[in-house]
Structure formats: C-alpha cells, structure tokens
Design a protein that fits this description.
4 domains, Rossmann fold, alpha/beta, 19 helices, five-stranded parallel sheet, Helicase, Ruva Protein, domain 3, elongated
Length: 462
C-alpha cells in the first residue's frame, strides 16, 4: 500500500511538480487548494505526511502549522518556502514543522527530506505503536529485526541449527547472544534435552572446573559429596559457555581436551565419563586478537569457531530501533494493563539518534522505565533519559556517505553537532553568561542568542 502525501498550496504548477516528485518517490500524492488563512475539514487531510507550499517569501507558516498540528496530531508537516532566512526556518521548526525546504526544491532535495522523515512516518503507523502484520513476520524465535544484517543472522541460524557443529556467537554486551543460543537449541534435534549455561566470568578457575566437569567427594575443601558437572548434566543436550574469553589458560587446555575426546574427568577423579553435548560459546571480545596477544589458545579458538555467528550492535541496525521499541512498549503496556502508550515521532527520532552503547538490553530497560513512568500517555522527548535526549548524530569513518545527497545530509549533521558543542563550550567558559560568551567568540549577542535557540540550548537570563 502506498503512503499518502498531501500537498497544500495555491499555485497549480508548483503543486503538480511536487505531486510528480512525490509519486516518483512512491507516494500517493493528492492536492488541496489551500491558503494559509483557510482550514479544510480534517477528513480532507487523510495523509501520512503534509507538504505546505507557501505562496510567497513573505508568507508566515506559523498559523498554518499551529492549525495543522492541532488538528492532525502527529502527522509530519513539511514547509516549502521561498524565504531562505535562518530565522524563518527556525521559527517554523519551533512551531512544529518536521522539515523546512527552500523553493525551488529539486527531486534530490525532496528525496533527502523524505529519508529524514522516515522515522516519523514509520512511528506514525496505524494503531499507535502496535506491530503490523509485516513486522510480525520479522519475529524469529523471539528475536525482532528487519535490517539486512539481522535477516542474514536469522537465515544462518536456520541453516546451522539442525547440524551438530560447535557455534561461536560474538557481539557486544546486550546484543542478544543468549537469545541466539536459545534459538539454535530450540531449532536443533536436541530441543527436548536440557540447555544449560555457565557464566565463565562468575567463578574462580578451580570452582569453574568443578562447575563444568564435576568433582568427587573430598577432592577439595567443601566437596562433601560427589557432584556431576554441567557437561554431564547437559548430556544429549546443549551446553552454553557464556563469555568464554574469560577462561584461564589452564581451564582452556582442559576444555580443549574435552572437545577433542568427548570425555570428561571430574575434579579429583581418575575415571573418565563420555559426554554427548553440543557446545555453543559466546563472547563480547575478539578471540582472534586474544590469540595474537597470547591470552587465548589458538587450538581452542579453532575448535570453538567452527560456525561463527556475529551479532551487529544496535547502532548499526537501521530501522530496528523503532521496531524493538514498539514491541517492548506494547509488551510492558500490556503487562501493566495500561491504555495504549505511544512514542511521539520526535521521541522516536531522538531514540534512533542515540548510539545505544548497551544495545538491545539498554533499549529494553529504558522503554520499561518509560512505560512505568508515563504509561497510558504519549511519551515525548522531554520524558527520555538525559543521555538519549541530548544525543546528537555523529558520522564515523565506517559510515561514509555513498551519494551526494547523503554527503550533504551528513555534512549538515556534522556542522550542527559542531555548532552545538561550540556554543555549549563557550557558555561553560563564561559561566553560562550569554553576553560574555558571545564576546569571547567574537559574535554579536543577538546572533549568538539566535544560534542557542536554533540548537535548543536554553540560555540563562542575562
């Protein structure tokens, strides 16, 4: 189904040009002949995005924006104007415009604007933040993801799960490595046998060996009875070694022998016991680099790295932040028997800017906090934690733009981020005094003050 775009304007030639560009971009574009002093009935404005073409450079967009935002709720509104002054653009954005384009606007510039609007368009889906049928299809064994990297992971898991090969799952903390392990186990022929896990960071080497291989009575202080280890307890099932990079070199050697012989020897015992398990290891570190550094055995690394599965960090999963936030918010709202809770398009957009160092785990925890504090209402940017609220988009060397439009967009983002940090640093040096800060950087106070407003920095009085 095509998304709906509505073009509000008076000049037929201009409106038709925007209709053609929008239709070329995949929108069902309609036109309403509307001046800024008119207000058609809300039923006429059935649209996913609204473009307001101002008739002249002197036209003030504020009145139109106020009416549209009041009557159309979260529908993004884009202002197109011949007025190229920064003050007018800032005024329009503060009045609720989702974007501000200069007339004449090229197809490339319009396409870039639509790309910037994508989070808002997606967040404004029907039924608030409920998952759509197409999004539900992206659920793989409890994991959500629609980016190409996650689709590749899902396809790989389906392929390797029925096999018996050892799997090494790598990824940053919070990316969902344990969910991958559970998915592999559920899809394997061992699904009816136990899935047991061992946290390799939680125990000292001696206790860890007892946990893995078991011990006999009297083998060490406190061993008051013979105990099976996880290798034996997980027989015919799956054993997870979580954060395997934390194993000591001595324990690594003993683990290697078990993988080679498929036999274990309990601590303090002389007898060996056959084990039939599938081993899955996880780590948030680069084992290859650890091998080079001499802190991880190369022979064990090759034994573990039979089938590598790498989970991308959340910051590299384009589009999945909205999908996951949607699912988590719906889950916690239902859990607490709340009325529909929604994230505003602006809040969702800010969440997509934040780099999520804690990955999916951090996103889940923050959404749960928002549901507890603001459940049953619309969550705004002001409700977000300060680290999310103040995040600014930065471009790393690994995501260089591929097109001229992307380059211009990234350039603008870099400049905005630099300007904001420049202003904040000037204020900090001058103890938040706007007049002194303006003088210190060689700017006139009104211009400095206008930049503060443009970047959402609330200047103190004086």
């Amino acid at each position: 189904m095509f998304r709906k775009a509505l073009v509000l304007g008076e000049d037929a030639e201009s409106v038709q040009r925007y209709q053609r560009m929008l239709r070329a971009a995949g929108f069902d574009a309609q036109w309403r002949d509307w001046g800024t002093d008119q207000a058609p009935g809300s039923a006429e404005l059935d649209a996913d995005v609204i473009f307001v073409l101002l008739p002249s450079a002197d036209s003030n967009p504020v009145a139109a924006l106020r009416w549209l935002k009041a009557s159309q709720g979260t529908v993004p509104v884009v202002v197109v104007s011949r007025n190229r002054t920064v003050e007018t653009a800032v005024e329009a954005m503060r009045a609720g415009a989702a974007d501000y384009l200069f007339e004449p606007c090229s197809a490339e510039e319009l396409g870039a604007a639509l790309s910037r609007l994508e989070p808002s368009l997606s967040a404004a889906a029907p039924a608030g933040l409920a998952l759509s049928e197409s999004e539900a299809l992206r659920d793989f064994e409890g994991m959500l993801g629609r980016c190409s990297a996650m689709r590749d992971v899902f396809a790989l898991l389906e392929l390797i799960a029925p096999a018996e090969a050892t799997v090494l799952v790598t990824g940053e903390s919070g990316t969902g490595k344990e969910m991958v392990v559970r998915a592999v186990h559920r899809l394997s022929r061992r699904r009816d046998a136990p899935l047991l896990g061992c946290d390799c960071t939680a125990l000292a080497p001696t206790l860890l060996e007892s946990e893995l291989f078991g011990h006999v009575k009297g083998s060490f202080s406190g061993a008051i009875a013979t105990k099976k280890g996880l290798f034996e307890a997980a027989d015919h099932g799956t054993l997870l070694l979580d954060e395997v990079s934390n194993l000591s070199l001595e324990t690594q050697g003993k683990l290697l022998r078990v993988l080679e012989t498929r036999c274990i020897r309990r601590v303090g015992d002389t007898a060996e016991h056959d084990v039939d398990i599938r081993l899955i290891a996880t780590t948030n570190r680069n084992l290859g680099e650890m091998v080079k550094a001499g802190s991880f055995r190369a022979d064990l690394y090759y034994r573990l790295n039979v089938v590598p599965v790498t989970l991308p960090p959340l910051r590299e999963r384009s589009g999945d932040i909205r999908l996951l936030a949607t699912a988590f918010l719906e889950h916690f709202s239902r859990q607490m028997a709340l009325e529909s809770t929604v994230l505003s398009p602006q809040a969702m957009q800010q969440m997509e800017i934040y780099p999520w160092p804690g990955n999916v785990r951090e996103l889940r925890n923050i959404v749960q906090r928002l549901a507890v504090l603001y459940g049953g209402t619309q969550i705004e940017v002001s409700h977000l934690p300060i680290e999310v609220r103040e995040a600014r988009h930065t471009v790393s060397s690994t995501e260089l733009p591929r097109t001229w439009d992307e380059f211009k967009s990234f350039k603008r983002q870099i400049i905005e981020d630099l300007e904001r940090r420049f202003l904040a640093a000037a204020l900090d040096r001058c103890e938040q005094n706007v007049t002194h800060a303006a003088e210190s950087v060689g700017m006139q106070r009104p211009n400095f003050h206008a930049l503060l407003r443009q970047h959402g920095l609330k200047p103190p009085r004086g």
